[in-house]
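Quick one, probably user error.
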């Protein structure tokens, strides 16, 4: 009796496990084989591998980055903090007053 009560507590878990096992078995029996998948996707896999090899090669032969990163200049410009302030705008504002 205690076993039946314990099983009823986990009936949802047992049902989910049975459904998962049934889905996996169905996939193995009715789904495509690994060779079929590789035959279909070999151009994509080959081009991705070549692209990653070229990226690794470029990263290896490229010179190390300089002290300032390329994006910092753009970020400073957008934020309104130019690298060098010439003071021309300040002088023009004083003249117009």
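Nope, works fine. Designed sequence:
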């Amino acid at each position: 009796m205690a076993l039946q009560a314990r099983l009823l507590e986990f009936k949802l878990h047992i049902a989910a496990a049975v459904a998962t096992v049934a889905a996996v078995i169905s996939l193995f029996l009715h789904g495509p084989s690994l060779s079929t998948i590789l035959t279909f996707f070999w151009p994509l896999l080959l081009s991705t591998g070549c692209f990653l090899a070229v990226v690794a090669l470029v990263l290896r032969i490229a010179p190390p980055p300089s002290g300032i990163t390329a994006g910092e200049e753009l970020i400073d410009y957008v934020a309104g903090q130019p690298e060098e302030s010439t003071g021309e705008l300040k002088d023009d504002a004083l003249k117009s007053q």
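The helical segments are 2-9, 11-30, 34-61, 70-79, 88-96.
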